[in-house]
Design brief:
Helix content: 55-70%
Structural class: mainly alpha
Distance between the termini: 35 Å
Strand content: under 5%
Number of strands: 0
Radius of gyration: 18 Å
Number of helices: 5
């Protein structure tokens, strides 16, 4: 979407209509992106974020103890769950598309 926006200058309707996160939500998204950049892969797809990585980031930003950590861990896990569901669905659709495009024998 962003590349076509840069080329054409036209904002796709889906991009124009999407809600933008507020400052609090944006902060958690940036934390999630930082964690996700270091995500491992098992060779069968993306692995979930690991607890030690979440704890390291939580400690670094002051969310490393008690209820603060539990909230942060929950937020990262929920964002990760949604991300992995999206990526799995995207992979499924791409696989079906490739299969449909293969020449039939």
């Amino acid at each position: 979407l962003f590349l076509s926006l840069e080329r054409t200058g036209v904002v796709p309707q889906a991009l124009a209509d999407r809600p933008f996160p507020g400052p609090d939500t944006q902060y958690y998204l940036e934390c999630f992106y930082a964690l996700s950049d270091h995500r491992q892969s098992s060779g069968f797809g993306l692995s979930p974020l690991d607890l030690p990585s979440i704890k390291i980031l939580a400690d670094a930003i002051g969310y490393g103890e008690g209820r603060d950590f539990e909230w942060f861990r929950y937020m990262m896990a929920e964002l990760d769950r949604a991300y992995l569901e999206y990526m799995n669905e995207r992979q499924r659709i791409e696989s079906q598309t490739r299969a449909a495009q293969r020449p039939k024998r």
